[in-house]
Amino acid sequence: MIIKKISLQNFRSHELYTLKMGDETTQILGENGWGKTSILEAVYLALQGKSFRAVDREIIRRGAEFYRVELDFSDGEKVVVAYEEGGANKTFLVKCLKFRRLPKKYKYPVVLFLPDDLHLVGSSPTRKRDFFDKFLSQFSPQYALNLSRYNKALKQRNELLKQENCNSNSLFSWDVMLAKYGCEIREARTKLISAINSRLTEVYQGIAKNKDTVSVAYEPYIGEVDESKYLRMLSLDFERDRALGHTNFGIHKDGYNFIFNGSLADGSASRGEVRSLVIALKFIEAEMLEKELLKKPLVLLDDVFSELDETRQEALVSNFKDNQIILTSVG
């Protein structure tokens, strides 16, 4: 699938904007604040069904009452996203059919590379979890569904914990959901990291041109437990959770670390080595998406070239030479 044109109306700072795309690489030049990232955001929204940085009401251009995104493809098909302010009024028009949510079968894989990704190794546990959750959700809709259900149950449980009359019985149904989806999420995360590690050193060495070894260490907070033990742990933690007002035990506390030659990469790897590691992760993400979905992902690069030296720029271009690329840069 090749995007030939994107048209925006009242999207962020763009009142009316149209851009014709190249079959291989399209470069969007502009000063900071011009709205380059917004164009990538619009493409991502149309292909994945949601923005990677905001809710709909924050996207509408100031003073407008709606936004519209239209993607035209080389095969004559198009996707139109329209949103009107004032409620759940977003629609997706695909193959002459209208939907409130973009159906899974009409989503298209995207590898998104943001400048902040280059700082992933030294980022917070939450940022790392979000990175791998998005990684896995794109080619596993079941994982995305399990994660959504887990987070909803966690939110409900935390709200109940803040109530004065809260007791363990009132939490039981939410505990059951947390145990069920928590165990499934942990299993999926374990498999993902195993798959990444089977390729990571090889891909990294191809970028960095050295013999260093790298890996991702998944550190599940809940350890090796089944659903019944998960439930028991939640029950045992009830008094502490009620005192704190939130749930302490669960996969929402999972951690990830990056390992460089047997040591934590954050502190032992140089800036260039860290960036090579992150680029390797993005290459593996593209490989896995293509393998699982049988589609070549679209690659969106948001002002990352300015953060990379010439060697790593060449690695990006070389590895994604068979993908359509849309990139932004200052100029």
Structure in words:
The protein has a six-stranded antiparallel beta sheet, covered by helices on one side. The chain has a four-stranded parallel beta sheet with strand order 3-13-12-8, sandwiched between helices. Strands 9-10-11 form a three-stranded antiparallel beta sheet. By secondary structure, it is of the alpha+beta class. It has ten helices and 13 strands. The chain starts with a strand and ends with a strand. It has helices spanning 36-48, 56-59, 125-139, 141-161, 168-208, 227-236, 238-244, 265-268, 271-293, 310-319, and strands at residues 3-11, 14-20, 25-29, 66-73, 78-84, 90-94, 97-99, 110-113, 214-219, 255-260, 263-264, 298-302, 325-329. The longest helix has 41 residues, at 168-208. The model has no long low-confidence stretch (mean pLDDT 94). The chain folds into two domains: 3-108, P-loop containing nucleotide triphosphate hydrolases (Rossmann fold, 3-Layer(aba) Sandwich); 122-294, Up-down Bundle (Glutathione S-transferase Yfyf (Class Pi), Chain A, domain 2).
What integer is the average pLDDT? 94
Q: For the CA atoms, what is the radius of gyration?
A: 22 Å
The SS-based structural class is: alpha+beta
By DSSP (H or I, 4+ residues per run), the number of helices equals 10
C-alpha end-to-end distance: 29 Å
Tell me what the CATH architecture of the largest domain is.
Answer: Up-down Bundle
* Biggest beta-sheet profile: 6 strands, antiparallel
CATH topology (level 3) name of the largest domain: Glutathione S-transferase Yfyf (Class Pi), Chain A, domain 2
Give the fraction of residues assigned to helices.
40-55%
Specify the overall morphology.
globular
